[in-house]
Amino acid sequence: MEYFALKLLCLCAVLGHSAEAASNGTCRNVPGSPGFPSQAEWDALNATVSGRLVAVVPSAKFCASLPGGACTDEQWESAVFRSTIPGAMNQVNWEQGYDLNPPSLCLRNATTCGQGDVPLYSVEAETVADIQAAVKFSSAHNLRLVIKSSGHDFLGRSTAPSSLLIHTHNLQNIAFTDAFFVGGTDMGAAVILGSGAYTNALYAQGKKEGKIAVGAFAATVCAAGGWVQGAGHSALSPTLGLGADNALEFEIVVANGDLLKVNQNSHPDLFYALRGGGAGSWGVLVSATFKTYPTFNVTSSTLLFGAANATVTASLAFLHAQHIFDWDSVHAGQYFYVEENLDPSTSATTPFVFNVSTIMPRTTVNESKALLAPFLNAALALPGVSLLLQEFNYIVVNDVLFHADDSVGVNEIVGSRLIPAATYRDSPATVGKVYEKLLETGAPAILGILVAGGKVAENANISSAVHPAWRTAKAHVVVVAEWDDSASLAEISQIRHLFQNVQAPILDELIAGSGASIGSYSNEADVLERNFQTTFFGPNYARLTEIKRMYDPEDLFIVGAGVGSERWDEWGLCRL
Ligand SMILES: Cc1cc2nc3c(=O)[nH]c(=O)nc-3n(C[C@H](O)[C@H](O)[C@H](O)COP(=O)(O)OP(=O)(O)OC[C@H]3O[C@@H](n4cnc5c(N)ncnc54)[C@H](O)[C@@H]3O)c2cc1C
Ligand SMILES: *[C@@H]1O[C@H](CO)[C@@H](O)[C@H](O)[C@H]1NC(C)=O
Ligand SMILES: *[C@@H]1O[C@H](CO)[C@@H](O)[C@H](O)[C@H]1NC(C)=O
Ligand SMILES: *[C@@H]1O[C@H](CO)[C@@H](O)[C@H](O)[C@H]1NC(C)=O
Ligand SMILES: *[C@@H]1O[C@H](CO)[C@@H](O)[C@H](O)[C@H]1NC(C)=O
Ligand SMILES: *[C@@H]1O[C@H](CO)[C@@H](O)[C@H](O)[C@H]1NC(C)=O
Ligand SMILES: *[C@@H]1O[C@H](CO)[C@@H](O)[C@H](O)[C@H]1NC(C)=O
Ligand SMILES: *[C@@H]1O[C@H](CO)[C@@H](O)[C@H](O)[C@H]1NC(C)=O
Ligand SMILES: *[C@@H]1O[C@H](CO)[C@@H](O)[C@H](O)[C@H]1NC(C)=O
After folding, report:
1. CA distance 372 to 361
2. Which pairing describes strands 144-148 and 163-167: parallel, antiparallel, or unpaired?
3. What start and end residues bound the annotated signal peptide (predicted)?
């Protein structure tokens, strides 16, 4: 692909740091430091967790060790397959130690392989006791601790160099109930999800029960992992609220090793933090309980437009902005993605596609067509726009949300902003201008996610750490950046800094005029976000800092751009 933007940027120096630094009061213990556990101590931990301690390697090294000496492309790109590799991340760039000194990489098919940003050991937890043992061991030995359920994280927060990993993938229990009690109060129908349970399993088992819960678009995101802690959006959010709005209770192992039951009555401060206060900063989730609803049918549709050039694409984005409220009467959720057209049969005439994929709850195909017609007809009247595909399906909501797997295994990062409803209402033309500028920076994809408004706005009075920008937003807009393994470290550094240096200020133009403050969804965002405290957590940061001090006074749970991370270096290895 073309990196159009490279020449616009400085070659920003990357601060080198060695993960092999000797430990002292301000750094965690790493191999070679006097306080690092001995082999006997690791063996003792392994015995405590019934042999479930494994040495971790990067996914490329794991693949090279397989009988055929490689993973197939199908395996490499499968989130389900990658979840069987303790060290694997879905976006493989997070396994690379680009910023280590010297850089430590393990690329697919390469002849050399460094450990990079991949943990040293993992506890493949199956019980609460496994988690407690790993937490206590990390505290006692001053280790860098990380937590992973699926490895989906776009900010690399579920991996770190020289760390011990707690992998909750095996906690896959799913239990539906018609009456979930918090204290003496019946909160109604609910589902208790283990922190390793995949979203697609929730949809499939829910169908058998005649139930649906708010969940992610991706098949293998763990609702009771990072998703809910960030806020958790869904195509059903305009109808049923955010994931965090639907959370009733959590079971969590906190830094002192205690297992806590957390709900509106019990540890209400932690209950506040776990709903929007950021993934990985509070303890190790064992399970989360969410409200469920009787299932219903939806009309799911795709309109795939081709656009002749970037200007036409921007006009389409402007037009879409003018129509974005057309579907509010049915509380639609929608993914409106601008992407480079990779289909060789149409890409010559239409280098960009605008893929508008809509879910309209309790709406027939004819009703749905009627609601989309004004936008569709106006789009087709634009010069340079063509309709490549049109599809409508009336279907049980569980089936439309169900996907068997996610396609991953690339080098990919994102940056994002929550876009106020006021911007779409008052200045849709700005939307078009911003899309054109973003495409000029070389962005291969701009993902619009209409998952706010409706119930998300109505839920503004829920007391949780969800960024208030969610309550006045209409959509979340995500700018994607990608690179191949052939990119040089200098090119990769440019791309990694592109969002903060160039694209965030462009996206901010969509917020500036509205009077709203700048907000971003912390789960689909740039880990290098400069003012992450306010951008990800808004006015909630001070309270979150207090809650963290109470439950995690020694900063055992530190993630990039998470609460308290300003006290630590990029890897969470040394205090600043
Ligand atoms: C293809 C794709 C599609 C997506 N679709 C959606 C979507 O529709 N809606 C949406 O809201 N988001 C979506 N996301 C973003 C998603 O919410 C985040 O990637 C989220 O971090 C995933 O959480 P996870 O636990 O599955 O991932 P992981 O990478 O395992 O973990 C992410 C973070 O959560 C922490 N964490 C994980 N498990 C635990 C645990 N047991 N206890 C405590 N902390 C834990 C980790 O430490 C890390 O900080 C998508 C991401 C991808 C890659
Ligand atoms: C702790 O170790 C780090 C890395 O070696 C070093 O930079 C730092 O100065 C040390 N701090 C103290 C207080 O010794
Ligand atoms: C932990 O113990 C199991 C079973 O005894 C063993 O197979 C595994 O290699 C051990 N892990 C480590 C890291 O030594
Ligand atoms: C690595 O090898 C596999 C076959 O084993 C091949 O399909 C793939 O394209 C190669 N990937 C890279 C990045 O070279
Ligand atoms: C359009 O986007 C949806 C997700 O939003 C995706 O499932 C679908 O495959 C895309 N269709 C095309 C033709 O790109
Ligand atoms: C949907 O609209 C088409 C064409 O307008 C019509 O023929 C059909 O009967 C309608 N279907 C329903 C279920 O109303
Ligand atoms: C983009 O396409 C439109 C419609 O085909 C055309 O009118 C316009 O001149 C093109 N713009 C550029 C910059 O090529
Ligand atoms: C819901 O859609 C399914 C098809 O997925 C259909 O069989 C069923 O009859 C529909 N139910 C209702 C109530 O319309
Ligand atoms: C929020 O407001 C709605 C009415 O708008 C009310 O039904 C609900 O109980 C309120 N919730 C809280 C937590 O105050």
Report:
1. 14
2. parallel
3. 1-21
Closest residue by Cα to residue 434 from 511, 332, 492? 511
User: Sign (positive/negative) of CA torsion 234, 235, 236, 242?
Assistant: positive
Q: Which of 525, 334, 360, 504 is nearest to 424 (CA)?
A: 334
26 ligand 2 Cβ < 6 A? yes
CATH number at 298-535: 3.40.462.20
> How many Å separate Cα 95 from the centre of its chain?
16
Note whether 306 and 388 are within 8 A (CB): yes
* Cα(36)–Cα(24) distance, integer angstroms: 11
- Measured in degrees and rounded to the nearest 5, phi and psi for residue 186 equal -80, 115
Q: What is the average pLDDT across 87-97?
A: 98
Distance between Cα 298 and ligand 8 center (Å): 9
Pair of tokens at residue 28 = 């965690």
- What confidence tens digit (pLDDT) does each residue in 505-516 have? 999 999 998 888
Looking at residue 10, what is its pLDDT?
29
Q: Which of 127, 152, 287 to mutate to test the pocket of ligand 1 (most atoms within 8 A of CB)?
A: 152
Distances in Å between the Cα of 447 and the Cα atoms of 96, 226, 306, 403, 444 are 25, 20, 16, 19, 10
The 3 state secondary structure assigned to 143-187 is: CEEEEECCCCCCCCCCCCCCEEEEECCCCCCEEEECCCEECCEEC
Q: What is the pLDDT of residue 11?
A: 30
174-294+538-553 folds as 3.30.465
Give the model confidence (pLDDT) of 97-154 as tens digits.
999 999 999 999 888 999 999 999 999 999 999 999 999 999 999 999 999 999 999 9
Q: Identify which of 65, 74, 108 to mutate to test ligand 4's pocket (most ligand atoms within 8 A of the CB).
A: 108
The CA 296 to ligand 8 mean position distance, Å, reads 8
For the cut 50, the answer to whether the pLDDT of residue 18 exceeds it is: no
Q: Using the predicted structure, report yes or no on whether residue 273 has a pLDDT greater than 50.
A: yes
CA 238 and chain centroid, separation: 19
Q: If you take atom 7 of ligand 3, which residue's CA is the nearest one? A: 51
Q: Locate the domains of the chain by residue range.
A: 19-167, 174-294+538-553, 298-535
pLDDT tens digits for range 364-390: 999 999 999 999 999 999 999 999 999
**C-beta of 148 in contact with ligand 1 (< 6 A):** yes
- How remote is the CA of residue 298 from the centroid of ligand 6, in Å? 17
Report the CATH number of the 19-167 domain.
3.30.43.10
Pair 195, 168: CB distance under 8 Å? yes
8 A C-beta contact, residue 400 and residue 359:
yes
Confidence of residue 299 (pLDDT cuts 50, 70, 90): very high
